[in-house]
Amino acid sequence: MRLYPAIDILDASAVRLVKGDFDARTVYAEDPLTAARGWVAQGATHLHVVDLDGARSGAPVNLEHLQRIATELGVPVQFGGGLRSESAVQQALDAGAERVIIGTAAFTDPDLLRRLLERHGPERVLVSVDVRGGRVATAGWTESAEPSTGAVIHRLHGAGVRHLIYTNVDRDGMLEGPDVLEVAEVAEVADTAHASVIYSGGIGAIEDLRALAALGRPSLAGVIVGKALYEGRFTVAQALEALGAG
Fold it and tell me: What is the pLDDT of residues 30-83, one digit of tens each?
């Protein structure tokens, strides 16, 4: 399983939110590149960058920061936040994103998702399945109107999606650990859909990573970790070892 240290950008700083609440933020670096450089220096081989300003506004805002991170650090970056048009996705790829993450648009504009998959291929287009209160949330985690997670995953697979990011928004930033049973159930659905899943939400201790790795699910491809790394709960090297990636 891969480790994806998170760099969430809001008002030009690297921050972490609590349960997706834009008003409950902690600033960890005034310059997102500084945060990203620190993770790579510790051994991170992939990065997860989210434009929170873009997620809230509906169009990317922090492409300059993406370009600096991708250019200066030379590791694959997956990027999301406000990617709701073909031009926005192209701008993100041109700025250096290895893969783009589609959230709201995957559910509100299936034709756009189809065009993106056709143009860029399923290896470069990920879909974010963000769950709040047991339902899939859209519009920067502020709306919940989708059916069950399993139904969503199968529908996305039918549309040609092969790679997913699954976030439990209720646990995000809480450091209380994932619901391992929930993750196992999601991974089981993904296994049947021949899709891969990157999990995000609530990682707070190295034991959380070991528990996810111990599931042994073929579809569980990685874990996104933010606050636990920023607050020194464990190091990148320890995380990589726990996930069997280092």
Answer: 999 999 999 999 999 999 999 999 999 999 999 999 999 999 999 999 999 999
Domain that holds residue 88: 2-242
Nearest to 225 by CA among 32, 41, 9, 46: 46
Whether the full predicted model's pTM is greater than 0.90, yes or no, is yes
Does residue 130 carry a catalytic annotation?
Answer: yes
- Tokens representing 182 are 């929930």
Of the listed 8, 51, 172, 208, which one is catalytic? 8
User: Cβ(214)–Cβ(242) under 8 Å?
Assistant: no
* 51 counts as catalytic: no
Domain count along the chain? 1
Catalytic residue, from 53, 130, 172, 208: name it: 130
pLDDT of residue 139: 52
At residue 199, φ and ψ (nearest 5 deg) are -95, 145
Cα(230)–Cα(105) distance, integer angstroms: 30
Burial 104-122 (b: 16+ CB within 10 A, else e): bbbbeeeebbeebbeebeb
Cβ-contact 88, 55 below 8 angstroms? no
**CB count in 10 Å sphere of residue 45:** 16
The answer for 187, left when phi > 0, alpha when psi is -120 to 50, beta otherwise, is alpha
**Top-confidence residue, 21 or 58:** 58
CATH number reported for the structural domain that contains residue 198 in this entry:
3.20.20.70
What is the arithmetic mean of pLDDT over 114-139?
89
Percent pLDDT > 90 in the chain is: 79
